[in-house]
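RETRY 2/3 - previous attempt timed out on the joint model. Re-submitting the same 960-residue input unchanged.
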Amino acid sequence: MSKEGTVKKTGKTVTFLLYLCSLVSSSLTPFLHVQTCLGAKKPFTEVIKANIGDAHAMGQKPITFFRQVLALCSYPALLEDSKFPEDAKQRARRILEACGGHSIGAYSASQGIECIRQDVARYIEKRDGGIPSNPDNIYLSTGASDAIVTILKLLVCGEGRDRTGVMISIPQYPLYSAALADLGAVQINYYLDEDNCWSLNITELRRALSAAREHCNPRVLCIINPGNPTGQVQSRQCIEDVIRFAKEEHLFLMADEVYQDNVYAEGCQFHSFKKVLFEMGPEYSNTVEMASFHSTSKCYMGECGFRGGYMEVINLDPEVKAQLIKLVSVRLCPPVPGQALLDLVVNPPQPDEPSYATFMKERTAVLSALAEKARLTEQIFNTVPGITCNPVQGAMYTFPRITLPQKAIDKAKELGLVPDMFYCMRLLDEEGICLVPGSGFGQREGTYHFRMTILPPTEKLKVVLQKIREFQLHFTQEFS
Amino acid sequence: MSKEGTVKKTGKTVTFLLYLCSLVSSSLTPFLHVQTCLGAKKPFTEVIKANIGDAHAMGQKPITFFRQVLALCSYPALLEDSKFPEDAKQRARRILEACGGHSIGAYSASQGIECIRQDVARYIEKRDGGIPSNPDNIYLSTGASDAIVTILKLLVCGEGRDRTGVMISIPQYPLYSAALADLGAVQINYYLDEDNCWSLNITELRRALSAAREHCNPRVLCIINPGNPTGQVQSRQCIEDVIRFAKEEHLFLMADEVYQDNVYAEGCQFHSFKKVLFEMGPEYSNTVEMASFHSTSKCYMGECGFRGGYMEVINLDPEVKAQLIKLVSVRLCPPVPGQALLDLVVNPPQPDEPSYATFMKERTAVLSALAEKARLTEQIFNTVPGITCNPVQGAMYTFPRITLPQKAIDKAKELGLVPDMFYCMRLLDEEGICLVPGSGFGQREGTYHFRMTILPPTEKLKVVLQKIREFQLHFTQEFS
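RETRY 2/3 succeeded.
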């Protein structure tokens, strides 16, 4: 009974997009692994998962201070233990005092614990050079994806030609396409400019918007900066242009800024949309509607499992805000351990506190290693015939373009696979390296890519890059 | 721009239901509190929140063993600390070994960590007297509400007369009505029998179903056992009848069993739908489609803030299961600390382990106190003229009926309030006690109720009951 109905319902548009989404979630790997292991003996001893932005799974160690505070919050008897530094205890006491019954096992307010929202607002103010942030505009969430889906749910409506259109970059992070298909919104693709370091081009935005106006009602513009899967960091000028465009076209801006600490390239800098918006003056800062998203899963902490995150909304109409509060109330509250962790991310040890030195050492080590790996990745890939790789300016991925011989494309078609999926399956099978085919993110017709994280430890990453190099040469030869 | 669209979209059906939903979430209390505090000086010193099933917020202490393991998982350096018992360390090591990079900061598989799903299956098998449970049928979730919404999303489809109808009890837990409105499903009300201890009556199910067949396609039957907000525990006979009915009418059964340890009344016992289904023989156990839900938020642990939970699906078609996997992949994974906590709930200390005695002592203390408070609540309420209270057989709420004088009903209407909302607002204003009006859960036309948790500590609960008693007398007098 349910089978037919369900398949009928989700079968149409959602299935394919959700399939793509599953490509970037951790579910895929065991599946591929099993496929791999079912075959003959393989010429590798380990599958290296470079398919998902999961820092701890790749061996990155948690930040000591964060985990100390979380242990203290989980088991407050440890507050009497002299082994824990005073600043960790002070943070834990403050968080516990803000919890019902002083326990992280109590529900919080659906919008999140108030003092944590205050800390988030202070963090944003500091980040943005003093531009005010109101804790009432902060909504804590179950990772950034939860908040992104919630906002889309709030904004998407209409039927037929009135259906809400949402502009997303291609390549994109598949959460967006999956959520849009699920909500029945129209996905409006704008293409990033691969030849210009995956930059965003306002002419292309205009083209995409005006084409979409023929068949839907475009209302939302999504930006990922720094970019996933493309690793570009937007210039201040580009952000200004985007904001001007959003204002002119009455678009709601969704700024996915979860990689805000992940900027590596010289001359690049993270500019928050909020800051640029306010620096453009009241004509913009009082009118453009916006939501910005952040998470505990990326940056230097990589705490994906805790599902912590927040969004800040700007210029949201009070009536819409009331609907938003109701929407978030249905799920009761975001996980409180994730809220506690977020509090530490936005309020880390300060220079006069005992944990500062260790914290800074750990944070810097992670970010420097990522910068080094970003450089290495671009450098090595660009020595491989048939691979072209833009600089990894930020985030934690590279999205190189691969040239596939026509015979390989034909072979893939014969097997019923998209060509870059065929490439990635072969790579997994022959070298034990798990990447995600570019088709999972979208790419210009006739081009092929893959996404690889730069998260493996440096020595392992070098091995991965070397193996991909050899595979590419060998694959090209085989199909030439 | 977004304002109009959003309000237009959600304004129709969702708004009211979401409003009701917010009544049971913690968001409401501050709102009421503020309302209260804005007025004149109040004749009470503290607002007692008996509106939400939030055990820790009401002073219940966490289970020591659970929090020790969570602290160890959060900060594994503590595994070297001799203060922690060996069984706690062993559990923490096992959980960490199952995590990517041995960190609870890594993503898990979207369906949940495999060894935890195995532990859940073993727990179900033990609970159900050996009836097999397959870990592949277990899906870990962000609290039970997440799993409930996911399954509804999978099952609801169609337009017009083909729209999926979902049968829910009245009174109901407002998550259901909110989710149905959000998904565009038809809510089919069946009324619980207040005169018979809020029992479920098959004749009433038939009536509701056949009336609904006129205008939609009924496909799902939701049961909450033990009941929220009504506190009844279903008999084995009743469960058999429900299963027979579901089979005959080709309904998907959703069994919300989050209060499975909360059974207090003599002669009452928790029977899982799964167990009864399998005991009815293969004719039923091979055909009836079902999902059962559990959570870390209720029972003796009351760990709401961790948002842990699971569902077990039975007889789900493999194609539908594939869709389910895709659906849960979009949000990446349930919070890993909540998964770890769930593992402890389903795999608590065993008699030969060092933490067993303390664990059992703590568990028993919570459950005995709840049983005592359940008894006390019924007893005291039934001495109050104008209040009629069924036995609180299970769960953690009472849903007594209140007789309101016609003048009070008129006054409420004059103020634009439903009568039991007026009653609850006055109670809050005069006595500082926060309850939820029965209209938030649904009730038979012309009857009035409120929901109160039995969670306040016994001495405080006595005060609450005494104050409600006085208020009821005084309120009745005022409006007579």
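Chain B has a mean pLDDT of 90. Closing ticket.
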